[in-house]
Predict the structure of Adenylate kinase isoenzyme 1.
Amino acid sequence: MGAGCSSGVCPSRKSDKLKNSKIIFVVGGPGSGKGTQCEKIVERYGFTHLSSGDLLRAEVSSGSERGKQLAAIMEKGELVPLDTILNMIKEAMIAKASTSKGFLIDGYPREVRQGEEFEKKIGAPCLLLYIDAKAETMLMRLIKRGETSGRSDDTAQTIKNRLELYYKATEPVIAYYQGRGIVRKINAEGSVDEVFSQVANAIESLQ
Ligand SMILES: Nc1ncnc2c1ncn2[C@@H]1O[C@H](COP(=O)(O)OP(=O)(O)OP(=O)(O)O)[C@@H](O)[C@H]1O
Ligand SMILES: Nc1ncnc2c1ncn2[C@H]1C[C@H](O)[C@@H](COP(=O)(O)O)O1
Ligand SMILES: [Mg+2]
Protein backbone atom coordinates (compact mmCIF):
# COMPACT_ATOMS: atom_id res chain seq x y z
CA MET A 1 0.00 0.00 0.00
CA GLY A 2 1.37 3.46 -0.91
CA ALA A 3 2.14 6.08 1.72
CA GLY A 4 -0.91 8.19 0.90
CA CYS A 5 -3.24 5.29 1.78
CA SER A 6 -2.29 4.79 5.37
CA SER A 7 -0.69 7.94 6.72
CA GLY A 8 -3.01 7.87 9.73
CA VAL A 9 -2.97 11.69 9.70
CA CYS A 10 -6.53 12.90 9.65
CA PRO A 11 -7.21 16.63 9.82
CA SER A 12 -10.66 17.25 11.28
CA ARG A 13 -12.11 18.47 7.98
CA LYS A 14 -11.69 14.97 6.56
CA SER A 15 -14.11 12.21 7.41
CA ASP A 16 -12.86 9.81 10.08
CA LYS A 17 -14.72 7.06 8.30
CA LEU A 18 -12.47 7.46 5.25
CA LYS A 19 -9.13 8.01 6.93
CA ASN A 20 -7.77 4.53 6.19
CA SER A 21 -9.38 4.05 2.78
CA LYS A 22 -7.30 2.97 -0.18
CA ILE A 23 -8.05 5.42 -2.99
CA ILE A 24 -7.27 4.89 -6.66
CA PHE A 25 -8.00 7.61 -9.21
CA VAL A 26 -8.91 6.33 -12.67
CA VAL A 27 -8.24 9.07 -15.22
CA GLY A 28 -8.39 9.05 -19.02
CA GLY A 29 -10.19 10.62 -21.94
CA PRO A 30 -13.86 10.13 -22.75
CA GLY A 31 -14.36 6.61 -24.10
CA SER A 32 -10.83 5.48 -23.22
CA GLY A 33 -12.31 2.54 -21.29
CA LYS A 34 -12.23 3.69 -17.65
CA GLY A 35 -15.60 2.23 -16.74
CA THR A 36 -14.89 -1.04 -18.57
CA GLN A 37 -11.62 -1.56 -16.70
CA CYS A 38 -13.15 -0.57 -13.36
CA GLU A 39 -15.79 -3.29 -13.77
CA LYS A 40 -13.04 -5.84 -14.28
CA ILE A 41 -11.11 -4.57 -11.25
CA VAL A 42 -14.26 -4.93 -9.13
CA GLU A 43 -14.77 -8.47 -10.41
CA ARG A 44 -11.21 -9.56 -9.56
CA TYR A 45 -10.27 -7.43 -6.53
CA GLY A 46 -13.62 -6.47 -5.00
CA PHE A 47 -12.99 -2.72 -4.81
CA THR A 48 -15.81 -0.17 -4.77
CA HIS A 49 -16.30 1.55 -8.11
CA LEU A 50 -17.56 5.14 -7.98
CA SER A 51 -17.91 6.82 -11.37
CA SER A 52 -18.46 10.57 -11.11
CA GLY A 53 -20.43 10.48 -14.36
CA ASP A 54 -22.66 7.66 -13.07
CA LEU A 55 -23.34 9.57 -9.84
CA LEU A 56 -24.33 12.62 -11.88
CA ARG A 57 -26.52 10.59 -14.25
CA ALA A 58 -28.31 9.05 -11.25
CA GLU A 59 -29.09 12.56 -10.01
CA VAL A 60 -30.35 13.52 -13.49
CA SER A 61 -32.55 10.38 -13.57
CA SER A 62 -34.06 11.30 -10.20
CA GLY A 63 -35.76 14.23 -11.95
CA SER A 64 -34.67 16.68 -9.21
CA GLU A 65 -34.23 20.38 -9.88
CA ARG A 66 -30.47 19.94 -9.35
CA GLY A 67 -30.54 17.04 -11.82
CA LYS A 68 -32.09 19.29 -14.47
CA GLN A 69 -29.33 21.85 -14.03
CA LEU A 70 -26.66 19.13 -14.23
CA ALA A 71 -28.23 17.62 -17.36
CA ALA A 72 -27.96 20.94 -19.19
CA ILE A 73 -24.23 21.11 -18.41
CA MET A 74 -23.51 17.48 -19.28
CA GLU A 75 -25.37 17.63 -22.59
CA LYS A 76 -22.84 20.24 -23.70
CA GLY A 77 -19.90 18.16 -22.48
CA GLU A 78 -18.90 20.74 -19.87
CA LEU A 79 -17.80 20.16 -16.28
CA VAL A 80 -20.29 20.46 -13.43
CA PRO A 81 -19.29 22.60 -10.41
CA LEU A 82 -16.50 21.15 -8.30
CA ASP A 83 -18.36 21.29 -4.96
CA THR A 84 -21.33 19.45 -6.40
CA ILE A 85 -19.39 16.46 -7.67
CA LEU A 86 -16.97 16.36 -4.74
CA ASN A 87 -19.81 16.26 -2.20
CA MET A 88 -21.54 13.51 -4.17
CA ILE A 89 -18.36 11.42 -4.22
CA LYS A 90 -17.68 11.98 -0.53
CA GLU A 91 -21.23 10.95 0.44
CA ALA A 92 -21.02 7.83 -1.71
CA MET A 93 -17.66 6.91 -0.18
CA ILE A 94 -18.89 7.39 3.38
CA ALA A 95 -21.90 5.18 2.64
CA LYS A 96 -19.55 2.33 1.65
CA ALA A 97 -16.61 3.03 3.95
CA SER A 98 -17.24 0.31 6.52
CA THR A 99 -17.33 -2.50 3.94
CA SER A 100 -15.06 -1.26 1.16
CA LYS A 101 -11.67 -2.80 0.41
CA GLY A 102 -10.74 0.34 -1.51
CA PHE A 103 -12.24 2.90 -3.85
CA LEU A 104 -11.88 3.33 -7.60
CA ILE A 105 -12.69 6.96 -8.29
CA ASP A 106 -13.48 6.93 -12.02
CA GLY A 107 -13.67 10.22 -13.90
CA TYR A 108 -12.30 12.38 -11.10
CA PRO A 109 -10.20 14.56 -10.89
CA ARG A 110 -11.03 16.27 -14.19
CA GLU A 111 -8.79 19.24 -13.38
CA VAL A 112 -5.93 19.81 -10.97
CA ARG A 113 -8.07 21.81 -8.53
CA GLN A 114 -10.44 18.86 -8.19
CA GLY A 115 -7.51 16.73 -7.06
CA GLU A 116 -6.37 19.32 -4.54
CA GLU A 117 -9.85 19.71 -3.05
CA PHE A 118 -10.38 15.94 -2.89
CA GLU A 119 -7.20 15.56 -0.87
CA LYS A 120 -8.22 18.33 1.53
CA LYS A 121 -11.70 16.93 2.14
CA ILE A 122 -11.24 13.17 1.73
CA GLY A 123 -7.68 11.91 1.45
CA ALA A 124 -4.73 11.15 -0.80
CA PRO A 125 -4.75 8.60 -3.63
CA CYS A 126 -2.13 5.85 -3.59
CA LEU A 127 -2.36 5.20 -7.33
CA LEU A 128 -3.54 7.01 -10.44
CA LEU A 129 -4.41 4.71 -13.32
CA TYR A 130 -3.96 6.72 -16.51
CA ILE A 131 -6.02 5.02 -19.19
CA ASP A 132 -4.40 6.29 -22.37
CA ALA A 133 -6.01 5.92 -25.79
CA LYS A 134 -5.64 7.93 -29.00
CA ALA A 135 -8.25 10.57 -29.82
CA GLU A 136 -9.36 8.58 -32.92
CA THR A 137 -9.82 5.46 -30.80
CA MET A 138 -11.86 7.32 -28.18
CA LEU A 139 -13.98 8.95 -30.88
CA MET A 140 -14.71 5.61 -32.58
CA ARG A 141 -15.58 3.90 -29.28
CA LEU A 142 -17.94 6.70 -28.25
CA ILE A 143 -19.69 6.89 -31.63
CA LYS A 144 -20.28 3.13 -31.41
CA ARG A 145 -21.39 3.33 -27.76
CA GLY A 146 -23.78 6.13 -28.73
CA GLU A 147 -25.74 3.69 -30.92
CA THR A 148 -27.09 2.03 -27.77
CA SER A 149 -26.05 3.98 -24.64
CA GLY A 150 -28.85 6.51 -24.57
CA ARG A 151 -26.30 8.99 -23.18
CA SER A 152 -27.16 12.53 -24.30
CA ASP A 153 -23.43 13.33 -24.52
CA ASP A 154 -22.53 10.48 -26.91
CA THR A 155 -23.24 12.69 -29.94
CA ALA A 156 -20.67 13.92 -32.49
CA GLN A 157 -20.60 17.58 -31.36
CA THR A 158 -20.55 16.81 -27.62
CA ILE A 159 -17.87 14.13 -28.04
CA LYS A 160 -15.73 16.77 -29.79
CA ASN A 161 -16.25 19.18 -26.87
CA ARG A 162 -15.46 16.48 -24.30
CA LEU A 163 -12.23 15.53 -26.08
CA GLU A 164 -11.11 19.17 -26.28
CA LEU A 165 -11.86 19.71 -22.60
CA TYR A 166 -10.02 16.52 -21.68
CA TYR A 167 -6.79 17.67 -23.35
CA LYS A 168 -7.07 21.17 -21.92
CA ALA A 169 -8.23 20.54 -18.33
CA THR A 170 -7.59 16.89 -17.46
CA GLU A 171 -4.23 16.06 -19.01
CA PRO A 172 -2.48 18.46 -16.59
CA VAL A 173 -3.80 16.23 -13.78
CA ILE A 174 -1.54 13.43 -15.02
CA ALA A 175 1.55 15.66 -14.88
CA TYR A 176 0.58 16.88 -11.42
CA TYR A 177 0.45 13.33 -9.98
CA GLN A 178 3.46 12.15 -11.99
CA GLY A 179 5.48 14.41 -9.74
CA ARG A 180 4.30 12.26 -6.80
CA GLY A 181 5.33 9.00 -8.49
CA ILE A 182 1.87 7.41 -8.29
CA VAL A 183 0.90 7.39 -11.99
CA ARG A 184 0.70 4.08 -13.90
CA LYS A 185 0.16 4.69 -17.60
CA ILE A 186 -1.97 2.02 -19.27
CA ASN A 187 -1.93 1.59 -23.05
CA ALA A 188 -5.66 1.33 -23.77
CA GLU A 189 -5.39 0.66 -27.51
CA GLY A 190 -5.61 -3.15 -27.25
CA SER A 191 -8.49 -5.49 -26.44
CA VAL A 192 -10.27 -5.19 -23.09
CA ASP A 193 -8.31 -8.17 -21.77
CA GLU A 194 -4.96 -6.86 -23.03
CA VAL A 195 -5.63 -3.57 -21.29
CA PHE A 196 -6.72 -5.35 -18.13
CA SER A 197 -3.52 -7.34 -17.85
CA GLN A 198 -1.62 -4.02 -17.49
CA VAL A 199 -4.22 -2.72 -15.05
CA ALA A 200 -3.96 -5.87 -12.93
CA ASN A 201 -0.16 -5.48 -12.73
CA ALA A 202 -0.61 -1.94 -11.49
CA ILE A 203 -3.16 -2.96 -8.85
CA GLU A 204 -1.01 -5.85 -7.66
CA SER A 205 2.00 -3.57 -7.30
CA LEU A 206 0.08 -1.96 -4.41
CA GLN A 207 -0.36 -5.14 -2.40
N1 LIG B 1 -10.17 -2.05 -24.96
C1 LIG B 1 -11.30 -1.82 -25.61
N2 LIG B 1 -11.45 -2.18 -26.89
C2 LIG B 1 -12.60 -1.92 -27.56
N3 LIG B 1 -13.69 -1.31 -27.03
C3 LIG B 1 -13.58 -0.92 -25.75
C4 LIG B 1 -12.41 -1.15 -24.97
N4 LIG B 1 -12.61 -0.64 -23.74
C5 LIG B 1 -13.85 -0.13 -23.74
N5 LIG B 1 -14.44 -0.31 -24.94
C6 LIG B 1 -15.77 0.16 -25.34
O1 LIG B 1 -15.63 1.58 -25.56
C7 LIG B 1 -16.75 2.28 -25.04
C8 LIG B 1 -16.26 3.27 -23.97
O2 LIG B 1 -15.79 2.52 -22.86
P1 LIG B 1 -16.10 3.01 -21.39
O3 LIG B 1 -17.54 3.32 -21.25
O4 LIG B 1 -15.50 2.02 -20.47
O5 LIG B 1 -15.24 4.34 -21.40
P2 LIG B 1 -15.12 5.52 -20.34
O6 LIG B 1 -13.69 5.90 -20.32
O7 LIG B 1 -15.75 5.12 -19.06
O8 LIG B 1 -15.96 6.64 -21.04
P3 LIG B 1 -16.70 7.93 -20.42
O9 LIG B 1 -15.61 8.86 -20.00
O10 LIG B 1 -17.48 8.49 -21.53
O11 LIG B 1 -17.53 7.46 -19.27
C9 LIG B 1 -17.72 1.23 -24.50
O12 LIG B 1 -18.68 0.96 -25.50
C10 LIG B 1 -16.83 0.00 -24.27
O13 LIG B 1 -17.53 -1.21 -24.43
N1 LIG C 1 -15.20 15.04 -12.03
C1 LIG C 1 -16.11 15.72 -12.74
N2 LIG C 1 -16.15 17.06 -12.69
C2 LIG C 1 -17.04 17.77 -13.39
N3 LIG C 1 -17.92 17.22 -14.23
C3 LIG C 1 -17.92 15.87 -14.32
C4 LIG C 1 -17.04 15.07 -13.58
N4 LIG C 1 -17.28 13.78 -13.87
C5 LIG C 1 -18.27 13.77 -14.76
N5 LIG C 1 -18.65 15.03 -15.03
C6 LIG C 1 -19.73 15.45 -15.96
C7 LIG C 1 -19.15 16.06 -17.22
C8 LIG C 1 -18.99 14.87 -18.13
O1 LIG C 1 -18.99 15.20 -19.49
C9 LIG C 1 -20.22 14.03 -17.76
C10 LIG C 1 -20.06 12.55 -18.02
O2 LIG C 1 -18.94 12.04 -17.32
P1 LIG C 1 -18.27 10.62 -17.71
O3 LIG C 1 -17.09 10.47 -16.81
O4 LIG C 1 -17.89 10.70 -19.15
O5 LIG C 1 -19.30 9.56 -17.47
O6 LIG C 1 -20.43 14.30 -16.38
MG1 LIG D 1 -17.34 5.96 -17.95
